[in-house]
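Hello support,

Our group uses your service weekly, and this is the first time we've seen a run hang past the timeout. The protein is Neocarzinostatin family protein. I'm not sure whether the cause is the sequence or the server load. Input pasted verbatim:
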Amino acid sequence: MTRRTGPETLRRAASPARLLTLAVLPALLAALFLSVLAVPGARAAKSAPTVSLSKKEAGKGGEITVSGKGWRGEALLMLLICGQATPERGVIGGTNSCANGAGRAVTTDEKGAFSKKLPVAEPPEPCPCVVHVATVTGEQASADAAFTVAGHPTAELPRRTGGGKLAVLAATRLEGDSSLLTWFGAPPARRLVFTVGNLGPAPVEDPVFEIGTAHGVYAPQWEERQWRGTVAPGARARIALPVELSAGAHGDYQISLRYGKKVLAEQPWGVGRPWGVTLFWVLLCLVVPAAVFRIGMAVVDRIRPRTGGAHRTANARPGSAVSKGLPRRTIPVARTARSAAAGDADATTAVLPWFTPDSAPSENRPRPTTKGQA
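Update from on-call engineer: The timeout came from a worker crash unrelated to the input. Re-ran successfully.
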């Protein structure tokens, strides 16, 4: 007998494999879903930088060791001791509250770890104090560790102004144009325009923003800009803050907007080269040598030795202003053939006597006698 293979037989043979697939597939999907959820958490945990101190308290002139993990690999960090700050609220007064003169820089290794000795100095603001660690270049990151400077004054932190929370609702833009003076090196100026909304339960009055300007790989330089007004809870406001660069600035700049410790927006700004300054230096290099040459020629013409006034009289025409008042020059009768051929305009032609053949001096002159003649 021959065994027939039909659709029914194939279905019976495939049913165990199908059951196995249906049993394993949900487990695979669940494992994949859990791995996707776990990856962002691992990344977030890995990107959170930490700072630890060898001592929690030390006096001025001492030294502590600052260590950290979880930072970006081969990143440049700045270590500072700051006053009027806590790890929860951060450095309230910014870097102006830190002992910048005693700060240290350190570069993390490939795994994002570092260890650096930091001298203890008194910050300009009273404690509570922290050791503030922040990135200098690249993506911004910071972390604080509580620290006490022995013998330094202590004061309470300023009270919070309210529960308002601002957020940028629209894209930022730079408004304004460059003037003619900017073409000659004047500081470029713009207005950073953006729209914010208050997402908190309390109004925000006269918020203080920070404008940062960064050029190339350097960290942004922050300047405070206060906006006069009140943003009610759930309301929005259009804000324009002035932005100004240094004189002669050109190239690609990055303008950042920060409120509190959070960067709200970033805006690129390409500044053209002030070609008027280049034109000025080119003209200066051409005009100054020409002026020096003219002055030098005038001085040489003034101090060079002069001959007698004969050349003036010789070139002066009769009756001219130069010839008036000068003695009349007497031209000798006998002149060389070369001077006569030159045709001197000032020389007067002498009248020569005319001789006839009979009265020529050569014929009337007695001939010399030879020896032996009478």
